[in-house]
Specification:
By secondary structure, the chain is an alpha/beta fold. 39% of the residues lie in helices and 15% in strands. Strand 5, helix 3 and strand 6 form a beta-alpha-beta unit. Bound molecules: NADP nicotinamide-adenine-dinucleotide phosphate.
């Protein structure tokens, strides 16, 4: 059982169900275009101490993410093994051969010879089970350290588990104080599936929230820091995105304070099932 006392700095990581250690806080790069901005953000984050980077084939920035990783490794002297790199297979590539090929394309663009975590990006009906078999093959062959899914509701996981031989190690879903996913978190906890929050800051939409602003000012922290600290204290891995060095640093400075029970009670009361992205039961891409 992981508690937030196991999470004490930016390099803190805990074992997934298969023993592979996944950092609790990472950098997301959704919507960061291929080019210097993506490479610089990744490099900046790793130099600052981040160890986890989250990209996806559809973000179309894997080449720059890879360049940023190489620059950071050269500058810090870190080994590739110190990092935890995640990418995701896009919907159009869900199929057995297609998914295997997509993995190779992601590796080639990133300039890596393995990923730490490869995810099925969305639960496209009729396609995710066969794609999962491809991920299981990559995992069995030692080509990827851990495999998981993204945007899977409980019923998608239940369906997948009817045939899966490997239980997904991670489910990366939209999760923030307005969408707390209590049923999914409970289900995942029972089965050893790590929940990872995407859009933890609700893409900036929560930064003016009065409840969070009050908690932030009581703690002498920013709203972003309160949300990210909350993620860690409820046992959810988190991957805030920023391309600005000062925010990359701010988002990582969440280890020197703790939320009170009252803070948790106030945040728990904010849940209203509100999404910034599509519902995985109703997406059209
Ligand atoms: N699996 C999926 O389907 C899925 C979907 C969406 C996202 N994701 C992953 O989750 C990551 C995070 O989600 P997200 O990018 O959608 O949204 P997010 O991290 O909730 O919010 C990012 C936005 O907040 C701003 N920001 C970041 N830190 C801030 C701070 N300390 N103070 C004020 N503003 C701040 C960023 O602007 P600046 O960059 O200008 O600082 C950006 O506009 C993505 O990058 C991606 O890796 C996965």
């Amino acid at each position: 059982m992981t508690t937030h006392t196991d999470i004490y700095n930016l390099q803190s990581a805990s074992p997934l169900a298969n023993g592979v250690r996944m950092p609790w806080l990472g950098l997301g790069v959704f919507k960061v275009p291929e080019g210097a901005e993506a490479a610089n953000a990744v490099k900046e984050a790793i130099v600052q101490g981040y160890r986890s980077i989250d990209t996806a084939a559809i973000y179309d920035n894997e080449t720059s993410v890879g360049a940023g990783i190489r620059e950071a490794l050269a500058e810090t002297g870190l080994a590739r093994e110190a990092l935890f790199v995640t990418s995701k297979v896009w919907n159009a590539d869900l199929g057995y051969g297609e998914t295997l090929a997509a993995y190779e394309t992601s590796l080639r663009k990133l300039g890596l010879d393995y990923l730490d975590l490869y995810l099925i990006h969305w639960p496209v009906e009729g396609k995710y089970k066969v794609a999962w078999r491809a991920l299981e093959k990559l995992y069995a062959e030692g080509r990827v350290k851990a495999i998981g899914v993204s945007n899977f509701h409980v019923h998608h996981l239940e369906d997948l588990l009817q045939e899966a031989t490997v239980v997904p190690m991670v489910d990366q879903v939209e999760l923030h104080p307005r969408l707390q996913q209590p049923e999914l978190r409970a289900y995942a906890a029972e089965r050893g599936i790590r929940i990872e929050a995407w859009s933890p800051l609700m893409q900036g939409g929560l930064l003016d929230d009065p409840t969070l602003t009050a908690i932030a000012s009581r703690n002498g922290k920013s709203v972003a820091q309160v949300i990210l600290r909350w993620d860690l204290e409820i046992g959810v891995a988190t991957i805030p995105k920023s391309t600005r060095a000062h925010r990359i640093a701010e988002n990582a400075d969440v280890f020197g304070f703790s939320l009170t029970e009252e803070d948790h009670r106030l945040i728990a009361a904010m849940d209203r099932g509100e999404r910034v992205g599509p519902d995985p039961d109703n997406f059209d891409f």
